[in-house]
TrEMBL record:
Catalytic activity annotation: ATP + protein L-histidine = ADP + protein N-phospho-L-histidine
Name of the protein: histidine kinase
Organism in which the protein naturally occurs: Streptomyces kronopolitis
UniProt KW keywords: ATP-binding, Kinase, Membrane, Nucleotide-binding, Phosphoprotein, Transferase, Transmembrane, Transmembrane helix, Two-component regulatory system
UniProt-listed InterPro entries: HATPase_C_sf, HATPase_dom, Sensor_HK_TwoCompSys, Sig_transdc_His_kin_sub3_dim/P
Molecular function as annotated in GO: kinase activity
Keyword Iron-sulfur (UniProt): no
Domain Histidine kinase/HSP90-like ATPase: 354-449
Length: 466
C-alpha cells in the first residue's frame, strides 16, 4: 500500500493595493527613522572648538565668551520665569534651568551632544509646565527664555554640523511641537510654531554662512596651490629656456673636440695606430653626444618656438652686445648709463650669456615697473680677478610716470626667477632688493674663466686632456 503525499499548502493570497501601499509607507518611515537616528547620533568633528582654525586669538575665544554670556544670563532669568510666572517649585525650576542653560557651554565644542541634553530638558520642562495651574494664559510648551537658549544652540549647530543633521534636528523640533500641541492644556499660548520657524531660519542662515566660509577657504587653498604651480611652471620654463640657450655653447665645445680628435692623426706625425684609433673613438663619441644634444634640444624647445620659425639659429649674445641693448632701452624711454670693464675679460660662454641675460631682465623690469627711471649698469671685475660683478641700479620713476614704448629687446618675462637660475647655473651669487629712496638694485657675482689654452697646442700628460 503506497502512502499518498500530503497536499501542498494553499497559496497565500496576493496582498491588496492598500496593503502594499501601507507596507511601503511603513518601510519608508522605518528608513527615515533609522536615517534620523544616524544623523542625530553622529556628530561632526566632536571636540573641535567653533572657529578653532581661525588665526586671530580673539576670534578663537569669541565662541566661549558668547556661550558663557548666554549661559550666565539665561540661568537666573529661566529660574525667575519658571518660579514666578509659572508657579513652579524653586528646586525644580533651578534644576530645569540649569539643564537648559549650562549645556550651552558644551555647545562650543560638542553642539550635537548639547542639543540632546537641552532638547530633553525642554521636553521635560514642557511636560512639567502642563501640570501646573500657572501655565494657563502663558506661552507653552516653550517659554521665552527656552526659545532664546534654543536659538543660540541652533546657531552653534549650524556652524558645525552637516546639512542632513540640521534637517534632522529641525524635524525633531517640529515633531515635538506637533505632539505637544495635540496634548496641549486649555488656555495656553502655543509657541511651538514660533520656535519651529525661528529655528529653521537660524539653521538655514548659519548653514549658509558656514558653507560660504568653507567655499572661501577652499578657494584660498586653490589659489595658493595655483600660485605655487605657476611659480613652479615659470621656473621650469626658465630652466628649459636656459638649457636651450646653453645648447649652442655645449655644442660648440663638442664640435671643437670632434675636430681636434679627427685632425689629430694629420697634425701629429708618427702617431701610433692605437692612439689614432683612440682619437677616432673620441671623435665618434663626440658626434654621438652632439646628436643626443640635438635630441635634447628638440625636447626642451617649446611648441610655440617650433611654430614660429623652428630652431633658434641666432648666435647667443654676450656682454659685447650690451651697448645695443642699452640703446634699445633708451629708445623705450629709460635713460641708461653703461660702464664696461676697461680691458677685455675672458669669460666662459655660459657666464658671458648669463651676464647679458641678467642685464636684459633687469632693464626689462625697469621699463615695465619704473618707466623713465634713471638707471646705471656697470660691469667690473673684482680686485682678485676671480669674479665679474654685474650691478644694475635704478632710481625712483619720475612722478607722474610717463608711458614708455615697449622694449625692443625684452626679457623672458620671468624676472628675478630667471636671474636666480642663471646665477645658480654658473655657481655665482645674486643680491636684489629695494633701495631706501624707492629705487631697486640688482647685483650679481659671476665667476671668471681662466684663459683658454691654444687649440693647436698638444695636450700635456699632467692635465689629463687629449
Amino acid at each position: 500500500m503506497t502512502e499518498t503525499p500530503p497536499p501542498p499548502p494553499p497559496a497565500s493570497p496576493r496582498r491588496s493595493a492598500p496593503a502594499r501601499a501601507g507596507y511601503r509607507a511603513l518601510r519608508a518611515v522605518r528608513q527615515a527613522r533609522r536615517l534620523l537616528a544616524v544623523e542625530l547620533g553622529t556628530p561632526t568633528a566632536p571636540g573641535t572648538p567653533l572657529l578653532g582654525t581661525v588665526r586671530n586669538l580673539w576670534l578663537r575665544r569669541l565662541p566661549y565668551g558668547v556661550a558663557f554670556a548666554f549661559a550666565v544670563s539665561l540661568l537666573p532669568v529661566t529660574i525667575a520665569v519658571l518660579s514666578h510666572d509659572y508657579d513652579m517649585a524653586g528646586g525644580m525650576a533651578g534644576a530645569l534651568a540649569t539643564a537648559q542653560a549650562a549645556p550651552l557651554l558644551l555647545a562650543v565644542t560638542r553642539p550635537l551632544q548639547a542639543w540632546w541634553v537641552i532638547f530633553a530638558a525642554d521636553l521635560i520642562c514642557a511636560q512639567a509646565l502642563s501640570l501646573l495651574d500657572g501655565t494657563v494664559g502663558r506661552p507653552w510648551p516653550w517659554p521665552p527664555p527656552v526659545i532664546v537658549g534654543y536659538l543660540a544652540l541652533m546657531l552653534a549647530l549650524s556652524l558645525r554640523e552637516r546639512r542632513r543633521t540640521l534637517i534632522a534636528v529641525w524635524l525633531a523640533t517640529g515633531a515635538a511641537g506637533v505632539v505637544s500641541d495635540i496634548a496641549a492644556p486649555d488656555g495656553i499660548q502655543s509657541t511651538w510654531v514660533l520656535l519651529f520657524v525661528l529655528s529653521g531660519v537660524v539653521l538655514m542662515m548659519g548653514a549658509i554662512l558656514r558653507e560660504r566660509g568653507d567655499a572661501q577657504r577652499k578657494l584660498i587653498e586653490q589659489e595658493t596651490i595655483s600660485e605655487a604651480e605657476r611659480a613652479r611652471r615659470t621656473l621650469l620654463e626658465e630652466r628649459a629656456r636656459i638649457a636651450r640657450e646653453l645648447h649652442d655653447v655645449v655644442a660648440h665645445h663638442m664640435s671643437v673636440i670632434t675636430v681636434q680628435a679627427d685632425s689629430a692623426p694629420y697634425r701629429i706625425g708618427g702617431l701610433p695606430a692605437a692612439a689614432a684609433d683612440e682619437f677616432g673613438a673620441i671623435a665618434a663619441s663626440a658626434r654621438e653626444s652632439l646628436a643626443e644634444m640635438r635630441r635634447l634640444l628638440g625636447v626642451l624647445r617649446s611648441e610655440e618656438s617650433e611654430r614660429h620659425g623652428g630652431p633658434e639659429k641666432a648666435p647667443q649674445p654676450g656682454i659685447g652686445m650690451l651697448e645695443k641693448l642699452v640703446e634699445a632701452t633708451v629708445r623705450a624711454g629709460v635713460p641708461v648709463e653703461l660702464a664696461l670693464p676697461g680691458e677685455p675679460t675672458a669669460l666662459e660662454p655660459a657666464v658671458d650669456l648669463s651676464a647679458y641675460r641678467i642685464v636684459q631682465e633687469a632693464l626689462a623690469n625697469v621699463v615695465r615697473h619704473a618707466p623713465g627711471a634713471p638707471t646705471r649698469v656697470s660691469l667690473r671685475t673684482t680686485s682678485d680677478g676671480a669674479r665679474l660683478t654685474v650691478l644694475i641700479v635704478n632710481s625712483p620713476p619720475p612722478a607722474p610716470a610717463t608711458p614708455s614704448a615697449p622694449l625692443e629687446t625684452g626679457g623672458t618675462g620671468h624676472g628675478l626667477v630667471g636671474m636666480r637660475e642663471r646665477v645658480r647655473l654658473v655657481d655665482g651669487s645674486l643680491d636684489t632688493g629695494p633701495l631706501p629712496d624707492g629705487g631697486f638694485r640688482v647685483a650679481a657675482q659671476l665667476p671668471l674663466a681662466p684663459p683658454a689654452a691654444p687649440v693647436s697646442s698638444p695636450p700635456t700628460k699632467d692635465s689629463g686632456a687629449l
